[in-house]
């Protein structure tokens, strides 16, 4: 009986020792204390960034990371103000209080459209900065934890995820790389003003074949954008924009544009040009410059008539046969005509404003035409889809 009790006791003792070894820290690893990371121009404070950095260091498994509550208790007893402890001498002193091998601190600052993360690894025994890393990131504050993941791995000589790094750092990426191509989609809206004869036809009465519309037309639609080239700060894109206009006048005028654009990433300025196609009603007719017709007692020169009006109202000889129409037949906007496609050229300039992953493009454009220019502006919003990380 005693022998069996001894065996059971020995087994329990061995299990307890095994558990303590399993759940304890690895004695072969150096200990490290993670201090606050100084924050300037960000929505996160120094303590929050320090906690995120601590998490990323723990995930690497390189060091035994000292518990933050134990650190706070030691600093409180020593009357050390961690909120202002960023100098090397203060960090070395903090490391000695913790009996740590290493101390990690640094700063995160926002400069315009960039976030700069600087991390410093301090050797407590030698009282020197063992290694430091300073990396510039795009100003995407919601991705701060991923930025710190990259910076921590670079500081500890661990390979960071390449796709994640390309996503956060403004590197020169290869042409048409599938990991850096962006698809930017979103709604568009705006207004355009039509000049010349086309503008007159839009405002003309229906009895004259006009549209009885305003010269200013509001438009709503959708944009799909594909970036097919990126080299440093330069980007080349293809934009597909579908719009519907004339709703304020009770009309439905669809159009689609295919634009080749060029954008400079840091400033957001862009230039684009390409064809646009609209579905409109057009009819064949002529201008009565000599007042040969007199419809409804009109008799005014330069009136517009449909081609078939000549057969009905044109001069006839003694046998009642129409004389040949002396006027050239042309095509013009007319509600009495049939629906057809009208092609044109669009030239646009604009700027894309960014807020995190949100893009707000604002553009002005012109469409030069023989029968009247169209000028307008448009704006919208879309979200950059992050590349798939493999």
Summarize the entry for a quick read.
The protein is of the alpha+beta class. It has helices spanning 2-23, 46-60, 68-78, 88-98, 144-155, 162-168, 196-203, 309-313; strands at 31-40, 64-65, 102-111, 114-123, 128-138, 183-194, 216-231, 234-245, 253-264, 269-288, 303-306, 330-333, 338-355, 358-367, 374-380, 382-384.
Number of continuous helical runs:
8
CATH class of the largest domain: Mainly Beta
Percent helix among the residues? 10-25%
The number of domains: 2
- SSE arrangement, N to C: HEHEHHEEEHHEHEEEEEHEEEEE
Give the DSSP E fraction (strand runs of 2 or more residues). 35-45%
Low-confidence region ranges: 1-24, 171-182
Secondary-structure-based class equals alpha+beta
The count of β-strands is 16
Roughly how many Å is the radius of gyration?
36 Å
- C-alpha termini separation: 61 Å
What's the CATH architecture of the largest domain?
Beta Barrel
Average of pLDDT: 83
Reported for the largest beta sheet, the result is:
11 strands, antiparallel
Annotated CATH topology of the largest domain: Porin
Large-scale geometry: rod-shaped
């Amino acid at each position: 009986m005693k022998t069996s009790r001894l065996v059971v006791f020995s087994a329990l003792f061995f299990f307890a020792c095994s558990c303590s070894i399993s759940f304890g820290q690895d004695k072969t690893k150096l200990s490290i204390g993670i201090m606050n990371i100084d924050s300037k121009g960000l929505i996160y404070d120094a303590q929050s960034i320090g906690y995120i950095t601590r998490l990323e260091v723990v995930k690497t498994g390189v060091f035994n990371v000292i518990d933050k509550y134990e650190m706070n208790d030691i600093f409180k007893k020593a009357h050390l103000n961690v909120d202002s402890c960023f100098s090397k001498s203060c960090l070395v002193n903090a490391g000695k209080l913790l009996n740590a091998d290493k101390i990690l601190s640094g700063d995160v600052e926002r400069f315009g459209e960039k976030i700069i993360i600087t991390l410093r690894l301090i050797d407590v025994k030698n009282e020197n900065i063992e290694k430091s890393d300073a990396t510039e990131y795009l100003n995407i504050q919601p991705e701060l934890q991923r930025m710190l993941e990259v910076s921590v791995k670079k500081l500890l000589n661990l390979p960071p995820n390449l796709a994640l790094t390309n996503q956060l750092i403004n590197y020169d990426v290869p042409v048409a790389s599938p990991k850096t191509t962006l698809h930017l989609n979103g709604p568009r809206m705006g207004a355009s003003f039509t000049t010349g004869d086309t503008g007159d036809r839009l405002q003309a009465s229906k009895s004259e074949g006009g549209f009885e519309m305003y010269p200013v037309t509001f438009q709503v639609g959708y944009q799909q954008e594909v970036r097919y080239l990126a080299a440093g700060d330069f980007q080349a894109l293809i934009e597909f924009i579908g719009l519907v206009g004339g709703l304020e006048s009770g009309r439905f005028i669809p159009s689609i544009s295919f634009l080749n654009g060029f954008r400079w990433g840091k400033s957001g300025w862009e230039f684009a040009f390409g064809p646009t196609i609209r579905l409109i009603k057009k009819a064949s007719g002529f201008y009565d410059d000599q007042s040969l017709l007199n419809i409804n007692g009109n008799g005014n020169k330069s009136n517009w008539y449909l081609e078939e009006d000549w057969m009905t109202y044109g001069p006839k000889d003694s046998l009642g046969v129409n004389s040949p129409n002396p006027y050239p037949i042309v095509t013009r906007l007319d509600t009495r005509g049939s629906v057809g496609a009208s092609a044109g050229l669009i030239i646009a300039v604009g700027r894309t404003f960014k807020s995190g992953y949100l893009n707000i493009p604002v553009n002005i454009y012109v469409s030069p035409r023989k029968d009247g220019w169209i000028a307008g502006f448009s704006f919208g919003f879309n979200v950059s889809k992050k590349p798939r990380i493999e």
